[in-house]
């Protein structure tokens, strides 16, 4: 949900609803920020916290500067949504974020997000492949392990010094030795 909040309104909270996102340390995560069609050419930005009155001044990234450290912004105007991606997440990235769209009035339009970054998990919650993140299934994990074993077997018994093209490498960390028994 979006709410109009402006510089003249002192507010500690902005939006009626908050989008919750959960991820893990080391992963990349995208925050989707929808906006109305009339704001396609407007400045978009994201700040940390939940104070709309100072959000633009504290912006982590804007549509005028689409890359800043671990943050990148992509404005998909045809869909009226902009996406902010944070790479190499740490637990300190957890918290509230506001997506802002500058309007011609004194009140910019905001949507709120809460990001929770958890420590590394012993069992992956997602399987990463170039360009997409998919939830793991037994089938996905078995295919990944099988293709990795086949790829390693074709070249040498030790880990290859160069990645084998077209192969997904997955390192699984098990908590107990009996987890290795299939």
Automatic annotation (TrEMBL):
Gene3D superfamilies: Immunoglobulins
The keyword Transmembrane belongs to this UniProt entry's keyword annotation: yes
Entries under Pfam families matching the protein: V-set
Domain of life of the organism encoding this protein: Eukaryota
Cellular component, GO annotation: plasma membrane
Keywords linked to the UniProt accession: Membrane, Transmembrane
Domain Immunoglobulin V-set: 22-117
Cell compartment(s), UniProt: Membrane
Gene Ontology molecular-function annotations: transmembrane signaling receptor activity
SUPFAM superfamilies: Immunoglobulin (SSF48726)
InterPro entries: CD300_family_receptors, Ig-like_dom_sf, Ig-like_fold, Ig_V-set
Name the record gives this protein: Immunoglobulin V-set domain-containing protein
């Amino acid at each position: 949900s979006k709410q109009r909040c402006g510089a003249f309104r002192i507010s500690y909270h902005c939006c009626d609803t908050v989008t919750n996102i959960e991820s893990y340390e080391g992963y990349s995560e995208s925050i989707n920020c929808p906006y109305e069609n009339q704001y396609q050419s407007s400045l978009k930005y994201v700040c940390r916290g939940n104070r709309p009155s100072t959000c633009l001044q504290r912006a982590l990234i804007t549509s005028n500067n689409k890359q800043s450290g671990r943050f990148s912004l992509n404005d998909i105007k045809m869909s009226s949504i902009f996406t902010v991606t944070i790479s190499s997440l740490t637990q300190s990235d957890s918290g509230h974020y506001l997506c802002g769209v500058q309007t011609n009035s004194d009140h910019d339009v905001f949507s709120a997000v809460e990001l929770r970054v958890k420590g590394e998990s012993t069992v992956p919650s997602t399987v990463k492949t170039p360009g997409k993140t998919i939830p793991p299934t037994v089938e996905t994990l078995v295919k990944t392990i099988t293709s990795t074993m086949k790829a390693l077997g074709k070249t040498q018994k030790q880990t290859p010094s160069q990645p084998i093209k077209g192969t997904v490498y997955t390192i699984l960390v098990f908590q107990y030795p009996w987890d290795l028994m299939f």
